[in-house]
C-alpha cells in the first residue's frame, strides 16, 4: 500500500497476536482522492481570484470549507 490515502483509511486490528490490515473500499479511496484534488483546485482558484480581482470570494471559501469537513469526517469516521 504505497498510496498514502489508502494507508490513512486502512483499519488495523490485532487477532491472535497478529496485526491484520483491512484495506478500504476502492470507491471510498477514489472519493477521498477526488475531494482532496478538488480542494487543491479550489484553493488555486481562490488565489487566482485574489490576484486578479483583489477580492476574497466567500463562495469559493465556503466550498473549500465544506470539502475539508467532508474529508475530515471520512477519515475520522473510517476509524470509528
Helix content bin? 55-70%
Largest sheet: 2 strands, antiparallel
Q: What is the averaged pLDDT score?
A: 88
Number of extended strands: 2
Strand order of the largest sheet: 1-2
Tell me the number of helical segments per DSSP (H or I, 4 or more residues long).
3
Using only CA atoms, what is the Rg? 17 Å
Distance between the termini: 21 Å
Low-confidence stretches: none
Count of domains: 1
SSE order: HEEHH
Assign the structural class, choosing from mainly alpha, mainly beta, alpha/beta, alpha+beta, or little secondary structure.
alpha+beta
Give the overall silhouette. elongated
Q: Hey, roughly how much beta strand do the residues contain? A: 5-15%
Amino acid at each position: 500500500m504505497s498510496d498514502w490515502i489508502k494507508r490513512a483509511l486502512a483499519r488495523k486490528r490485532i487477532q491472535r497476536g497478529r496485526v491484520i490490515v483491512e484495506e478500504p473500499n476502492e470507491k471510498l479511496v477514489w472519493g477521498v482522492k477526488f475531494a482532496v484534488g478538488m480542494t487543491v483546485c479550489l484553493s488555486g482558484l481562490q488565489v487566482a481570484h485574489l490576484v486578479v480581482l483583489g477580492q476574497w470570494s466567500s463562495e469559493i471559501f465556503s466550498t473549500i470549507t465544506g470539502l475539508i469537513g467532508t474529508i475530515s469526517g471520512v477519515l475520522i469516521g473510517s476509524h470509528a
